[in-house]
Amino acid sequence: MGTAEMHLWELVYYCVIGGSIITYLAGLRLFRLPLLTFSSVNYFLAVLLAMLPGYAVSNGVYLPSQLGRGFDQTIYFIYVCYAVTLTGAALLGQITAKKFTLAGKARAGFNLRLGIMVAFIVFYACAYFHWVPEVPLKNLLFGTSQAGDAAEQRISITHQLGGLGSELPWVFRFWRGIIQNWPVAVCFILAYKKATGGKISSVLYYPCVLGTAWLLTFTLEKASLVEFVFGLAVIPMMVKRKTQYIRLAASVGVVTLLSMACIAVFIRPETSGVFKALTNRLNGQTSSIYVQIQHVREQGYLGLRGIKFPFESWILGKDYYISLSTEAYAAIFPEMARAGYVGSAGGLSLAELYFAFGWFGLPIFVLLVGILSWMDIVWRNSITLSSRGEGFRCINGAFYVLGMTLYSLTYVGSLFMIVSFPFGLSAECLLIAILYFWLIKASSLRLVALGRT
Length: 453
Known about the structure:
Elements: H1 3-30, H2 38-51, H3 54-58, H4 73-96, E1 100-103, H5 110-131, H6 136-141, H7 147-163, H8 175-195, H9 202-217, H10 223-240, H11 245-267, H12 274-283, H13 289-299, H14 312-315, H15 324-332, H16 334-338, H17 349-357, H18 361-384, H19 390-406, E2 419-420, E3 424-425, H20 427-439, E4 446-449
Antiparallel strand pairs: 1-4, 2-3
C-alpha cells in the first residue's frame, strides 16, 4: 500500500473520530444531558485511550518490532465501528433514560450495618496480610527490600498469584473486591454524608481515607489511587450539582504525575522520562488486539469461550475460558512469561466481542452500551432528581461515584467488567452488589417515571 493511500486511510479515520466526538458533545448539549456521568467519563477515556491512538494501533506501532506486520484493515475497521457505534449507543441510552429514576429505601440501622461491614473488612484485611508472602509498599518504605525487589513482589501478587489459582486460597480469591473496592465504597458513603452536611467525625473519616489509600497502594499500583482521589473530588460536585473542572483535573493530574514520578525514580530508574512513560502507557492501552487477532485468524472465533463468566472455573473447568489478553501478554513480554508471570495485556471492548462472535458482536456491543448508558442516567436521577429519603440518595450517590471511578474503563477494555452470564453481573460487581443490598432494602427498589416518585 502506497504512502498516499495510507495518508487517505489516516485522514478518513480521524475525520470519523472527530465527527463522533462532535456528535457526542452536540447530543449532550441538545438533549440537556449532564456531562459528569458514568457514560461520559467512559466515553472520554475511550477517546483518549482507544479512538485517538487507534490508527497507530492498526499499524502495530506500540508493539515490539518483531510482532509488526504492517497495516491491518480489520483492526482499522474495528476502531472505526467502535467510534461510531459507541457514540450512538451511549447517546441513545442516556436520552431514553431522562424521564426515569430509581426509587427505594435504605435499611434501618444504617450506622450499625456500616460498622459491621468495616469490622469485617478489617478482619479480612488482617487475615490476608498475615497470609500474603510480601507487602511491597511496606518493604519499600521500611527499607527491607530494594526497589527492584519491591517491583517483583508487586508482580508476584497482582499477576503470578492470580494466574496460579492453586496457590491462592479460595477465601482470598476475592481480595481486591473486599479490601479495595469495599473500603472505597465506605469512604465514598462517609464523604457523601459529609458533603450533604451530615455529622461525620474527622477522627473516623480521615483514618478511613488513609487506610483505604494504603489498601489501594500496598501493591505499588497507582490506577486505583487515582480513581479514589477522582471519586473524592467528584462527590462534592455531585452534591452541589456544579462541576468544578479545574479542581477535578488538578486533583487527578497531581496524583497521576506523582505516581508516575515515584515509579520512574524508585521502581524503574531506567525510565527515560515520566511523561514519555505515561504517554506510551496511555497510547498502548488497546494495542494488544494487534496480536490477539492472530489467534482468531488461525483458530477461528472463540464463541462463549472468549467471554469471562463468574465462577466459570468451578463450573466449566479452568481451561474453558480462552484469554487472548494473557496470550498477548506472553507474546509482548516473553521474558516475564518465561519467569512464570501471568498477566493481562489489555484489549478493546468491541474487539473482545469480535474475537468471540465476529461482526455479530457489533449489535451485542451496541445493546450492552445502550443498556449501561440507560442505567447510568436512571441511577444518576435517583441522586439528583429523586425526592426519596436522604439515606437512600446518600448510598446511591456513593455507589454511583464508585461505579464511575472503578468501571471508568468499561467502554474501553471490556463490557464484561460489569455485565456477564449467567448471573447478569461479573464476579467483582456481585461483591459490590452484596455490600449495596446490605445497606439498601432490595424489595423497595423500583423504576418510576419522574414526577411520580
